[in-house]
Amino acid sequence: MSHSTTIALDAMGGDDAPAVVVEGVDLAHVRLPQVAFLLFGDQARLEPLLERRPHLRSCCQIRHTDQAVKGEDKPSQVLRQGRQSSMWLAVESVSRGEAAAVVSAGNTGALMAVSKFVLRTLPGIDRPAIAGFFPTERGETVMLDLGANVECNANNLVEFAIMGEVFARILLGIEQPSVGLLNIGSEDVKGNDAVRSAAAILRDHPLDLKFHGFVEGNDIGAGTVDVVVSDGFTGNIALKSAEGIAKLYSRFLREAFSSSWVARIGYLLAKPALLKVKMRTDPRRYNGALLLGLNGISVKSHGGTDAVGFANAIGVAAELATHGLNERIKSELTRLKSSDGPQA
Amino acid sequence: MSHSTTIALDAMGGDDAPAVVVEGVDLAHVRLPQVAFLLFGDQARLEPLLERRPHLRSCCQIRHTDQAVKGEDKPSQVLRQGRQSSMWLAVESVSRGEAAAVVSAGNTGALMAVSKFVLRTLPGIDRPAIAGFFPTERGETVMLDLGANVECNANNLVEFAIMGEVFARILLGIEQPSVGLLNIGSEDVKGNDAVRSAAAILRDHPLDLKFHGFVEGNDIGAGTVDVVVSDGFTGNIALKSAEGIAKLYSRFLREAFSSSWVARIGYLLAKPALLKVKMRTDPRRYNGALLLGLNGISVKSHGGTDAVGFANAIGVAAELATHGLNERIKSELTRLKSSDGPQA
Hints:
2 copies of one chain form a homodimer.
Chain A: E1 5-10, H1 19-31, E2 35-41, H2 43-51, E3 60-64, H3 75-81, H4 86-95, E4 101-104, H5 108-119, E5 129-136, E6 139-144, H6 154-171, E7 178-182, H7 193-204, E8 210-215, H8 217-222, E9 227-229, H9 232-257, H10 261-281, E10 289-292, E11 297-300, H11 307-322, H12 325-338
Parallel strand pairs in A: 1-2, 1-4, 2-3, 4-11, 6-9, 7-8, 7-9
Antiparallel strand pairs in A: 5-6, 5-10, 10-11
Helix pairs in contact in A: 1-11, 3-5, 4-5, 6-7, 6-12
């Protein structure tokens, strides 16, 4: 069949690359037969993986390179010496128009640096942000920034709000997603200067954006808003704290269910229902964070994910590629800047 | 019997005051028969509650006032006009030496402001912090600051580390608690200036403190260190994000167990084991955050807690009062400042 969308993959990025990448392609291919893949990486390692999957031959193309970014490489180092790496070449194929999006499970800092350097930021966007999903009582919430920007001013936060809102509209399919600023209280006087000023801007400008006001950490899980905006330091720590406590809960439950024979039988009876909980909170379902604010779609997969998770990250990339994410962000920004909004 | 310790209570603070306060005293009295209580608040409302509990007569004294701090009162307002409030008078009884500690479930900002104004900070401490507990895979972890200081410099964080370490030694009974700085990565280059400089100070100074280095959000639940140090903005959001996700999990589980008859039977069989999980993660167990760094012990109870939670907060206050918390913090600080450490 002919392929309507091409996605570039950093086949050497992630803990179990390239095997997980090719397995992920295999899973994604079933759901996305219209997508073709450019696999950047070591041909000698990729060939045998594809040979075992002849059905992927027509949708996969290998682009050989023997360089790869390592997990411990510093972003600045990659910018200087990594131009032949699988990550760089994959990102570059997006800027050249060969691919509509890139997915990498490699080094986050390096992917951000390379994506920013090669793709450039959207006009009007000062700093790109990392956006991801989070399970909530009401479904899913978009969170950003998850770690790209340690310190942010009010304008950065406002830009994140706009970008996150468009992202939620496309990926969650919500017509008017509500947006909240993460803070330590819901009163106007709470928080630091950046969040207070950002709230004032979002409240007073004709952004066509459903601004809820401040939200607190517990509002993330409650699903109080569709988009939670914060600086990258806070967002990363909120996300990882929540992940840690979810892991703690799972462990306590596992211990409880294996603590006696009766509890074990109880577990077996409740197992189908409990598997649903596991599915709802499965981190692989939420894999695929977008580097938002660039002239091109660059998706970060968790480095330790398996094929199911990697296939989900591919799904996020494909969804964004077909819905013109960046065009919609640009038009929102134009509206903001043409009113007497903040200057980037 | 004679009472060796006196604890002052803001009997009008909290969502269900004064009823929850008196019920909390009732529960605490069983475990702490040596503690006497000064109840600051409305005599007309407190009398009937105590009359129903004649066994508390000998350990409880009412100090009447008809003023009380409200939840929405601003700290500055309370400082100007709240000198006759139950909160203020309770804190004052500590500074006067009448009580060894104060517990309030009222307005957090107001309690911090009043405690700081009335009790003053310890010599060498620039800013007090709010310290609390968190359940982990290994037991419990002390976290601070949970929201007193929105922005912190490196010296503030170092002081929090010292105070938190002494707090953990007393309340968790660990001889050499390990201390970690909350950050978005474990590498030296990660994070903002404050955490990086604080790490350098903690690493290089002869503090007799087991400094682990940076920890990430997921390390909180994992129990990687005994004390997690952060600024109040990040700490508050980490704590509440984790609380939110714990609630989400509970809800998903409840839904799962009631989704079918078989699952319900499974639940009944596993119930005793599941109750243990509930107990291990019961927020009431972790109630009682200390305003750390003051010349006196001021404990904040969650405003929405019940009598069990309030009794736990009283337990924290009693424990700290009998172990000379502040003397031990002062001696650690003297050691720090006498070496060429940072100047407050």
